[in-house]
């Protein structure tokens, strides 16, 4: 704790605070006017205990974020109850390396041009070029974001936010808030963030220590599942990347996303119900239907074993219960043997052991994979009626995979669910809070599994349906997730303002997403204007040169993305550009680090990232025909840009931009 505190103090040395409010508590006495300085970490005088800077997460600092201007009294909730008062000043301050860089008053009481809180400081921050990694936003958190960040812990928050509305950022700040506010109840090690891939985790990795929450666990769902289930080495478990080629290819054989696609089916509530029925039926029938006669005349009745299993050991998961019953039977046998004449003891012992072995052969011990195989390959008579409900095509496909010793990403939710039912959840895998970023790509079944791993349904579930490019296994509507929680357990928020891009880029992207058949929330820009989106016809052979020219023109920015449509084409373009002497990183699905600079990235991998300048290539009829997947892919690509967006096409432009 001391080391952590020292770390915070060192950080505060170079930038102690970023804001000030002058707050007059509502007493008649004007002397109660306090100048409150707000920083990333609180600082107090070690001798006098006087608070010099308050932590941004403290109750009083909430006024800095929730204050909307005007002369009406404001209030905040302190540990002793609500405190009311008036704000006289709201000031933003930029300090870098102990140098005061900028001071902007966004509200001064009594001055006419400050009727509301001005956005000048926010716009100044948004105009900056970003470096490689995501940054904290403590100095400019907006009111609607602050409400989410400060929501109570024992709630499943579901947040639909447009591209660039700060979902990822808000989720990380929420973790910092929870750790501050509930410091006696939760530990950083017991919080976990799920993100789409390792590169994305690297991209957000800087914010965590900046916010003082470096020890939070970070995982992809795939890696996490592999930590829990010990798969036999002969089984290959394919990650989600295995699906990319199938779903993101171009040409006439592009797949349509339907409800009976294997991925969607295996993530559905319907499938979870079937698995649950199989498990509970197995539970009902697993004990062999017989008494256990250890030796002649020594019978352990079926009823006694039932009582042990269904009543005494009921709190344990199935397989642990089976172990307990095994041990109990052995104890019973040993204690009974004590009364047996020494001369025949040995003989009866070996006879009893044989009987016990044969008894437990009839009582199958399953691993998750065995049970899953049983469902698909050779269901026992009690299960076969239930498995009839699984569509035949999915059954056949899965049976074939299992025969080839292969499992796929979409099988993981069911496998984890079975594993938890059979073996329970170890305390290492129980969490105080779970963040699911890009949650539109999660299936209801995945969320059901995660719900088993979190205490008090404490979730932050964030996503954007407009970016649902993985809807072959994700959701189409938040109802699919909301229905998994009761009304009191959940809260739903919408974030509609996009902070990432200029107004021009947002308006352009909105036009593209409006082609979608879904009714989706459109983004509203913060009034930050930039250059018009540039659309250029560029013949194929001139593409490398054109890209080089744009890069040359934009050489002063920190990050540029060249976005292609498929993995293969990006690799090709990367080679071509490298031959032309342009240094750039190719982002592939198994990349673990994000290096910034100039990147070449397929649209489906760009999700979650952002770049000062984005150049989208091949925006033509062939690569982006008008269908749901391409609308969303192009929307994702466009909304990655902060300041400038270029679209290049050869032949005929895509109908989405023509
Ligand atoms: N209140 C804010 N003040 C300053 N910058 C902000 C604010 N909110 C968000 N941003 C910035 O907007 C950008 C987008 O944030 P973030 O990546 O968290 O959004 P997102 O909703 O997760 O986006 P997407 O869904 O497109 O991945 C980031 O650069 C972030 O710093």
What is the topological layout?
Blueprint: H1 2-14, E1 19-25, E2 33-39, E3 43-44, E4 51-55, H2 62-66, E5 74-78, E6 81-96, E7 99-108, H3 120-127, H4 143-149, E8 156-161, H5 167-181, E9 191-194, H6 198-204, H7 207-210, E10 217-219, H8 221-228, E11 236-237, H9 241-248, H10 262-266, H11 269-285, E12 292-295, E13 298-300, H12 302-312, H13 318-337, H14 342-361, H15 368-376, H16 381-387, H17 392-403, E14 406-407, H18 412-423, E15 433-436, H19 444-453, E16 459-463, H20 479-482, E17 490-495, E18 497-498, H21 503-513, E19 524-525, E20 534-537, H22 543-553, E21 559-564, H23 567-579, E22 585-586, E23 597-602, E24 611-616, H24 628-638, E25 641-649
Parallel strand pairs: 2-4, 8-16, 8-17, 9-10, 9-15, 11-14, 15-16, 18-19, 20-25, 21-23, 21-24, 22-23, 24-25
Antiparallel strand pairs: 1-2, 1-6, 3-4, 5-6, 6-7, 12-13
Helix pairs in contact: 4-5, 11-16, 11-18, 13-14, 15-18, 18-19, 21-24
Bound molecules: adenosine-5'-triphosphate.
Keywords: ATP-binding, Exonuclease, Helicase, Hydrolase, Isomerase, Nuclease, Nucleotide-binding
InterPro entries: DNA_helicase_UvrD-like_C, DNA_helicase_UvrD/REP, P-loop_NTPase, UvrD-like_ATP-bd, UvrD-like_helicase_C
Domain UvrD-like helicase ATP-binding: 140-502
Structural account:
Pfam families: UvrD-helicase, UvrD_C, UvrD_C_2. Keywords: ATP-binding, Exonuclease, Helicase, Hydrolase, Isomerase, Nuclease, Nucleotide-binding. Its EC number is 5.6.2.4. Residues 140-502 form the UvrD-like helicase ATP-binding domain. This protein is α/β, with parallel strands linked by helices and 658 residues long. Strands 1, 2, 3, 4, 5, 6 and 7 form a seven-stranded mixed sheet that branches. A six-stranded parallel sheet has the order 10-9-15-16-8-17. It has a six-stranded parallel sheet with strand order 20-25-24-21-23-22. The radius of gyration is 30 Å and the shape is globular. 38% of the residues are buried. Residues 122, 125-126, 130, 135, 137, 140-142, 145, 161, 163-169, 464, 467, 499-500, 608, 610, 639 line the site of adenosine-5'-triphosphate. Adenosine-5'-triphosphate (ATP) binds next to helix 3 and helix 5.
């Amino acid at each position: 704790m001391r080391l952590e505190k020292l770390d915070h103090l060192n950080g505060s040395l170079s930038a102690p605070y970023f804001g000030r409010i002058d707050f007059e508590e509502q007493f008649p006495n004007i002397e109660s006017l306090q100048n409150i300085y707000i920083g990333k970490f609180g600082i107090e005088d070690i001798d006098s205990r006087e608070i010099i800077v308050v932590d941004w997460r403290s109750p009083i600092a909430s006024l800095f974020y929730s204050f909307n201007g005007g002369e009406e009294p404001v209030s905040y909730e302190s540990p002793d109850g609500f405190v009311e008062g008036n704000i006289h000043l709201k000031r933003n301050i930029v300090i870098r390396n102990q140098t005061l860089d900028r001071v902007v008053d966004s509200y001064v009481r009594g001055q006419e041009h400050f009727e509301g809180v001005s956005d000048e400081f926010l716009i100044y921050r948004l105009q900056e070029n970003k470096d490689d990694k995501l940054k904290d936003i403590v100095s400019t958190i907006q009111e609607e974001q602050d409400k989410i960040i400060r929501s109570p812990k024992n709630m499943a928050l579901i947040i639909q936010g447009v591209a660039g509305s700060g979902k990822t950022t808000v989720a990380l700040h929420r973790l910092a808030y929870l750790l501050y506010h509930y410091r006696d109840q939760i530990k950083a090690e017991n919080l976990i963030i799920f993100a789409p891939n390792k590169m994305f985790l690297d991209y957000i990795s800087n914010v965590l220590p900046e916010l003082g929450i470096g020890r939070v666990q970070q995982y992809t769902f795939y890696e996490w599942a592999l930590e829990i289930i010990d798969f036999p080495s002969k089984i290959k478990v394919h990650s989600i990347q295995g699906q990319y080629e199938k779903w993101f290819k171009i040409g006439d054989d592009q797949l349509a996303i339907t409800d009976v696609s294997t991925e969607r089916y295996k993530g559905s509530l319907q499938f979870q119900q079937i698995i649950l029925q199989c498990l509970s039926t197995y539970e009902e029938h697993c004990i062999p239907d017989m008494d256990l006669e250890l030796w002649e005349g020594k019978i352990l009745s079926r009823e006694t074993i039932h009582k042990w299993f269904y009543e005494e050991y009921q709190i344990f998961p199935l397989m642990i219960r089976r172990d307990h019953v095994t041990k109990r039977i052995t104890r019973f046998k040993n204690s009974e043997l004590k009364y047996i004449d020494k001369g025949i003891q040995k003989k009866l012992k070996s006879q009893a052991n044989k009987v016990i072995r044969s008894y437990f052969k009839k009582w199958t011990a399953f691993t998750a994979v065995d049970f899953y195989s049983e469902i698909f390959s050779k269901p026992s008579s009690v299960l076969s009626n239930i498995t009839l409900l699984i569509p035949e095509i999915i059954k056949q496909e899965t049976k074939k995979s299992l025969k080839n010793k292969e499992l796929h990403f979409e099988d993981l939710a069911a496998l984890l669910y079975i594993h938890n039912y059979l073996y329970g959840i170890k305390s290492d895998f129980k969490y105080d809070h779970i963040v699911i970023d890009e949650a539109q790509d999660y299936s209801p079944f995945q969320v059901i599994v995660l719900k088993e791993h979190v205490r008090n349904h404490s979730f932050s579930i964030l996503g954007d349906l407009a970016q649902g490019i993985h809807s072959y296994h994700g959701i189409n509507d938040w109802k699919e997730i909301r229905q998994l929680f009761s009304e009191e357990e959940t809260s739903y928020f919408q974030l509609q303002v996009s902070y990432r891009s200029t107004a021009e880029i947002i308006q352009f992207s909105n036009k593209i997403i409006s082609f979608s058949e879904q009714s989706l929330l459109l983004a509203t820009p913060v009034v930050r204007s930039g250059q018009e989106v540039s659309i250029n016809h560029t013949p194929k052979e001139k593409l490398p040169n054109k890209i080089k020219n744009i890069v040359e023109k934009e050489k002063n920015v920190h990050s540029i993305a060249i976005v292609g449509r498929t993995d293969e084409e990006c690799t090709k373009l990367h080679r071509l550009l490298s031959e032309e002497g342009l240094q750039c990183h190719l982002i592939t699905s198994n990349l673990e680090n994000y290096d910034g600079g100039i990147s070449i990235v397929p649209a489906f991998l760009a999700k979650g990232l952002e770049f000062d300048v984005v150049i989208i290539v091949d925006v033509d009829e062939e690569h982006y025909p008008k269908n749901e997947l391409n609308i969303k892919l192009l929307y994702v690509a466009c909304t990655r840009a902060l300041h400038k967006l270029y679209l290049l096409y050869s032949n005929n432009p895509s109908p989405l931009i023509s």
